[in-house]
Amino acid sequence: MLGRLSLENQVAIITGAGGGLGSATARLMAARGAKVVLADYILVAARSVEAELAATGATALAIQFDLGDEASIKRMVAETIDRFGRIDILHNNAADLSPEVGQNDHDILHMDTALWDRVFRVNVRGTMIASREVLPHMLAQGRGAIVTMTSSLALQGHIVQNAYSTSKAALIQLVRNIAAAHGPDGIRANSVAPGLTLTPAVRRVFPEAVRTLVEKETLRDQMGEPDDLAELVAFLASDAARNINGELIVCDGGLTSHVPDIAGYRALGKKAAPDQV
Ligand SMILES: NC(=O)c1ccc[n+]([C@@H]2O[C@H](COP(=O)([O-])OP(=O)(O)OC[C@H]3O[C@@H](n4cnc5c(N)ncnc54)[C@H](O)[C@@H]3O)[C@@H](O)[C@H]2O)c1
């Protein structure tokens, strides 16, 4: 019995649904009754999730689109309306995570302006346009939930991924502004900040040494997995979260909740407990 967690008969667009977190969320939303639109730049990835969900009896539609292109975003929203006639949920999940961005997104002193513009064009401008394009449909229905993926990197300074983390920080404010403007009309907009999460891409790309650094700072026995994020996103999209609006919820196993030198304290052992400092 899902109660208010149920997404029965709701239409959900999930951008980046061919990827690690987006596909996990699409699976969970479909299992909770949503008709899911799997929108991704890579059609073959979206189609593979579509086939998997169709085999379970779920309603799923793969659509190719580019979050960096306004006309393409508009076309994706129009295709959703043509097929399903409504949009109840938008999960802004896609972001430009391509290797050429990741490998060159460093500190401000070495920041390439074109790279900065590319990251902001996709992550911020694209997410704004997708949200703007679904809003008239949600407002006409008198209800709608937007859940936007940011990152724990948007909450703390770092020496890597400068453009990425700044773009994710901008999304936190975009979400608050959507909630402030349209909450009274039945729209909820919230954001989610994952820490490094064990998607297939993270397992492949992040060296063991970096994962160990993160694991040591995490307040549980392992790093988060895609299902941990899917549970949170599906909850925020559902009526179970009807009293939550304009919020950011961090889902990082406690990574950003504590003092920065906790792993060092642990390494010193119990003798360095705070009562002895
Ligand atoms: N995995 C993590 O550790 C982690 C941590 C913090 C935040 N996030 C955020 O979670 C979201 C999903 O990340 P993921 O780990 O699943 O990555 P992923 O690479 O597995 O999936 C991202 C998906 O977005 C799609 N995409 C990229 N650019 C696009 C564009 N221009 N138009 C349309 N689709 C596009 C890709 O094709 C891919 O399918 C991202 O917003 C990311 O910033 C992930």
Automatic annotation (TrEMBL):
Sorted UniProt keywords: Oxidoreductase
Pfam families linked to this entry: adh_short_C2
InterPro entries on file: NAD(P)-bd_dom_sf, Sc_DH/Rdtase_CS, SDR_fam
Domain of life, source organism: Bacteria
CDD domains: SDR_c
Coiled coil region boundaries: none
TM helices/strands, residue ranges: none
Family: Belongs to the short-chain dehydrogenases/reductases (SDR) family.
The name this protein goes by in its record: SDR family NAD(P)-dependent oxidoreductase
